[in-house]
Fold this sequence. Notes:
Elements: H1 5-22, H2 34-38, E1 42-47, H3 57-68, E2 73-76, E3 79-82, E4 91-92, H4 100-109, E5 113-116, E6 119-122, H5 124-127, H6 140-164, E7 168-173, H7 182-193, E8 200-205, H8 206-212, E9 221-226, H9 238-257, E10 264-269, H10 294-308, E11 314-322, H11 342-354
Parallel strand pairs: 1-2, 1-11, 2-5, 3-6, 5-7, 7-8, 8-9, 9-10, 10-11
Antiparallel strand pairs: 3-4
Helix pairs in contact: 4-6, 6-7, 9-10, 10-11
Amino acid sequence: MMSSPGGLVLGIFFVLIFVGISCTVDGGQTSDTSSEVAWKRIAGVTIADDFPDYTSPDCLALCDSLRAAGATWVAVTPCGFLDSTQDVSVSWTRWSSRDYRTAIAKMRAKGLKVMLKPYLFAMDFWTKKQWTGDIRHNDSASRRAFFDSYQSFILDNARIAADAHVELFCIALELPHLSHFEAEWRSLIDTIRTVYRGPLTYAAHGLGESQAIRWWDAVDVIGVNLYPSLTDQTAPADSVVRAGWIPIKRQMERLSSMNGNKPIVLTEVGFRSVKKAMFSPWEWPEHGSRPIDHTEQAQAYRILADELYGEQWFGGVFWWKVFTDGAKPAENADGFTPQGKPAWKEMSDGFKAFRQ
Length: 356
């Protein structure tokens, strides 16, 4: 039976709406639907850029394990190298000169979405226990040189992101002494968008840096690397841990509301398998050992899921982190990975409930 003209127009209207809503966000499309569609229920994990590499059968087996655990996203992390925190020249290393395009294609074929999240590493991080927060460049000449070099590095990554159709591209992470130079970041973002037209984020160092940034409107998602100190107690009661989340949740809700209700994704969050796992959880194993305790790490995973996964402003999480060689992870038993620990089940249970 033939439709009336009015019915035909109405049908076309609904088809167009459906197509617009269900477009997949990738490197070849704009990100207009990001706040409504793409940034809810990201159940993600960071896979370390280690050996065996991302293209290996080991990594593909890990991807299968993550999918079985309820993960829907992974973060891939190419490395840019600096000789020191004062260096202005960012270069690729032999370590990171890998076939990321092929690796990402294999991950996506496994049903995983991908965030490409390049980072910077300097030798000072090992020799002086420094970090990206020690990269400053207060004088205009060195700052210009750094941003010029960083732009070249990040555009290389943007081309990978575009070619591989990654669903989210992180333009930088944890540069609190540089992120207040608003003009430089807006210019960089405009340039990145000429290469990669998908959604962008920046991974801020905790709530301090995220609240200081004035250019969140230029990206699609607020990214926060969060290692929250929730309690200094050993074997804390659940109620104590939940109380520790209260002020953090309030700050994140306000951060979202002050930026047009833009969703917040925890681009990193993690807890080590140690006693007092929720006290100063940002401390790396190589910077200080603690007695091993799997229970508190699992508790931290469980309560984070309980406290955050249902919040309206919460877009998702990337747990820190897992290794392609699960039998011999590249960190000690007191490290961050949930592999082979009770935290893996808590991560999985949280993901599966989150996705319902």
